[in-house]
Design brief:
Elements (H helix, E strand, L loop, with lengths): L2 H8 L2 H7 L1 E4 L14 H6 L4 E3 L4 H14 L7 E4 L12 H5 L4 H16 L5 E2 L23 H16 L12 E5 L18 H8 L1 H8 L4 E4 L3 E2 L2 E2 L4 H11 L5 E2 L9 H4 L5 H11 L4 E2 L3 H11 L5 H17 L16 H18 L1 E5 L13 E4 L6 H4 L15 H8 L5 E4 L12 H8 L4 E7 L20 H15 L3 E6 L7 H6 L2 E6 L5 H9 L63 E7 L4 E2 L4 E10 L5 E10 L11 E10 L4 E9 L5 E2 L5 E2 L3 E8 L8 E7 L10
Parallel strand pairs: 1-2, 1-10, 2-3, 3-4, 5-6, 6-9, 12-13, 12-14, 14-15, 15-16, 18-26
Antiparallel strand pairs: 7-8, 11-16, 17-19, 19-22, 20-21, 20-25, 23-24, 25-26
Helix pairs in contact: 2-13, 6-7, 6-15, 7-9, 12-13, 15-21, 17-21, 18-19
Bound molecules: alpha-D-glucopyranose.
Alpha-D-glucopyranose binds next to loops.
């Protein structure tokens, strides 16, 4: 009998339910506060998993209680939300998505895992894979942006980064793909609200990233808090047991979200805790995070015959299997056995600086005002986010401290000098006090350029942070307008650095700024990364993974829309449009300026019929007609003009990158598997349909900027017939 079966055969019901329970330590609270001390329960074997504990010593102390003092010595599984870094913080995931660089996505996950494992952790509740097209939802910040194909690429990279090739290795973490699924489509962008979308949209938009995570070997999945068309995900048999475990063959652990099993009562599908525990277990949820529903509800459910011991054993078996795969039985102290060497930590900070600079999306660079290269440059670095370390972390800051993240002011002062960099806050992020504006304007007098740092506070995005108004909070707009007016009178450029966890609705800011950088929340090296771009040490290359609305009324807004039977036609009143705002976004998906100026030409695709098994080679020439070296990201979209179901006007199917010196030309080659052109037919089953498909290549999801070529999908002639 193997080790797990042998253990299982000895376990009491209380010990089994302990392995199905995850309790928060008091080191961090990420949900409704439920007090209580777990140490006796760990010794009794009635708590088998913890979250929010940080520090190798603390972890090992708890591990020792489980391994050396409990009856069966089953090691604890301890997890934390290492979402975009542990102690060293990288840009928020939405900002990292802007790199369009799978190697970097994997590298930051790998580095985060190293740092968290050195603190004794064995699980991260990441990657968050919720595609979202609604910036009212605060958790857009944590996700992969608006596109399912991009979400799938990020899923693969992150799972490989966190888990490595050997889950038992001391520097890896079990990843948790979350929140399964469609949480990003909450009604009206309101946090935790019901999700009510078509099955087609669930399958085409919200499942691909999870399919990719499972294919990449993710060890665990976390269902969303939300209900999907009236069925709470925590109790969703069709999507958990049916699709995830049945169709995709997922054999790992399903861990509930924080207190979510108990919340089946609030959803109105469970009468009490025993009923809620029954529903979750029947759906395939193995670990109850912080609801205590399994420990308190399953004994009654068992006695009433609502669940069987076999169903409980199945859950326990999966949890023990994960602990075995993590090497926790062989050496429960392996993670955190030794502190990281300082060289690794400083290398990680350097990586955070590179990633921070590459996450920056230059949305505007009027008159080529950037980079600022004047000798003896004097700056005024002003605004409520000019010198705020805590806000540079962004939401979900892991185990990092509030201080120690390089602010914009610190970044510029380190590179220029204190004497050359003046500072004033001007206004706060979100209160009504404008008394500081005058002092800030005074700082502009002696500056060659003004760096205006505005946006959201870190706490205004992330979980439980939906916003109905998507402009700048507080009196920042009044402040910015005063700065623009003074700068204009002084003839000084204003470079706006915008911090946010979502695309904000700021058309006026785009209009009035001389340069506009979307910095998201750049993490521990924020100020250095921003100064690197502004001063020209790094050429900006970030591309926005979300469409930026002109108005909140456009939301949800995304490039992969279906065409409508009356697509927008300026010459025809009766077509799809608003009376008061254009249909298109202020900045489209994929948009991002560089210090170069790129021209596309000579798009080449194969002639003749393309069979499902073929690989389509797409080539395009790119020339840098600008005066500075830069890296261009080239996007590959498709559009199936005539199909058995309506297809989006653009579908993202690939991207490539090319770095070119001024005057240089190069060719970007992208490979597209014809099978990737399958879609869900009328019966929601994948179909490869013969017919013409457009291939569109260019700098962003704006059709007017894309080169177009056509390919013909064909079913291979029956064998024996030659054409
Ligand atoms: C939170 C979040 C989830 C997180 C969990 C543990 O409420 O929804 O993403 O992993 O609880 O902190």
């Amino acid at each position: 009998m193997n080790r797990i079966e042998s253990l299982l055969s000895k376990m009491t019901l209380a010990e089994k339910l302990g392995q199905m329970t995850m309790t928060a330590s008091s080191y961090a609270v990420t949900g409704p506060v439920i007090a209580g001390d777990s140490t006796q329960a760990i010794k009794d074997g009635t708590i088998g998993n913890l979250l929010n504990m940080v520090g190798a010593q603390h972890v090992h102390d708890m591990q020792r209680l489980a391994v050396e003092e409990s009856r069966l010595g089953i090691p604890l599984l301890i997890g934390l939300d290492v979402i975009h870094g542990h102690r060293t913080v990288f840009p928020i995931p939405l900002g990292e998505a802007a790199l369009f660089d799978p190697k970097m996505w994997a590298l930051t996950a790998q580095e985060s895992a190293r740092e968290a494992a050195a603190d004794g952790l064995a699980m991260t509740f990441a990657p968050m894979l919720d595609v979202s097209r609604d910036p009212r939802w605060g958790r857009s910040a944590e996700g992969p942006g608006e596109d399912p194909w991009l979400g799938a690429r990020i899923a693969e990279a992150k799972v490989h980064g966190y888990q490595g090739n050997d889950l038992a290795a001391p520097h890896t973490l079990s990843a948790v793909a979350k929140h399964y699924c469609a949480y990003g489509a909450v009604t009206a962008g309101r946090e935790y609200a019901s999700v009510d979308i078509s099955e087609r949209t669930v399958r085409e938009v919200h499942l691909p990233a999870f399919e990719a995570a499972v294919a990449a070997g993710v060890a665990a999945v976390m269902p969303a808090f939300t209900d999907l068309a009236g069925v709470p995900m925590t109790a969703n048999v069709a999507l958990l047991r049916g699709w995830l475990r049945g169709k995709l063959g997922f054999r790992g652990v399903i861990v509930s979200d924080y207190h979510a099993i108990a919340e089946l009562i609030h959803h109105g599908v469970a009468a009490d805790l025993a009923h809620a525990a029954t529903l979750a277990l029947k759906a395939g949820v193995d670990i109850d995070m912080m609801a205590d529903a399994y420990r308190r509800g399953l004994p009654e459910a068992l006695s009433r015959g609502w669940v069987t011991m076999a169903e409980i054993d199945t859950a326990v078996r999966r949890v023990l299997t994960l602990k075995l795969r993590l090497g926790l039985f062989d050496d429960p102290y392996r993670r955190g056995a030794r502190p990281e060497d300082p060289a690794a930590v400083s290398a990680r900070r350097k990586l955070a600086r590179v990633v921070g600079s590459r996450a920056i999306v230059m949305l505007k660079n009027g008159q080529g005002v950037l980079p600022l290269t004047k000798p003896g440059l004097r700056l005024a670095v002003i605004g409520p986010l000019a010198d705020s370390s805590v806000d540079m972390r962004g939401p979900w800051w892991g185990a990092s401290a509030p201080e120690g993240h390089v602010t914009v002011l610190e970044g510029f002062r380190q590179m220029l000098s204190d004497a050359h960099v003046a500072h004033a806050q001007g206004v706060s992020i979100d209160d009504d006090d404008t008394s500081g504006i005058a002092a800030a304007l005074e700082r502009c007098e002696t500056a060659d350029a003004i760096i205006l740092c505005v946006g959201e506070a870190a706490a205004m995005s992330g979980e439980a942070a939906s916003r109905a108004h998507l402009g700048l909070p507080g009196r920042q707009r009044a402040f910015a307008d005063a700065v623009f007016e003074r700068a204009r009178s002084l003839g000084k450029p204003v470079v706006v650095v915008l911090f946010s966890g979502r695309p904000l609705v700021v058309p006026w800011l785009a209009e009035k700024s001389d340069a506009l950088l979307a910095a998201w929340f750049p993490g521990s090296e924020a100020g250095n990364a921003i100064a690197d771009v502004v001063l020209g040490h790094v050429s900006p290359s970030g591309r926005t993974p979300v469409s930026w609305p002109r108005a909140a009324g456009q939301v949800p807004i995304f490039f992969g829309q279906r065409p409508s039977g009356r697509p927008r036609d300026a010459a025809d009143h009766y077509t799809s449009k608003y009376l008061d705002v254009a249909n298109d976004p202020l900045f489209p998906f994929g948009f991002g300026l560089t210090f170069g100026r790129f021209k596309y030409s000579n798009l080449r695709v194969p002639a003749g019929g393309v069979a499902e098994s073929d690989t389509i080679v797409v080539r395009v020439d790119v020339a840098n007609e600008g005066r500075r070296a830069a890296e261009e990201t080239v996007f590959l979209f498709t559009h199936d003009r005539v199909a058995s179901v309506v297809r989006p006007v653009l579908e993202l199917k690939g991207f490539g990158k090319i770095s070119l010196e001024p005057g240089e030309t190069g060719t970007v080659t992208m490979l597209l598997a014809a099978a990737d052109l399958k879609f869900l037919g009328l019966d929601l089953e994948p179909v490869f349909e013969a017919g013409d498909v457009e291939i569109l290549v260019g700098p962003c999801a704006d059709r007017s900027q894309l080169l177009l070529a056509g390919i013909e999908l064909a079913h291979p002639a029956p064998s024996g017939i030659k054409r």
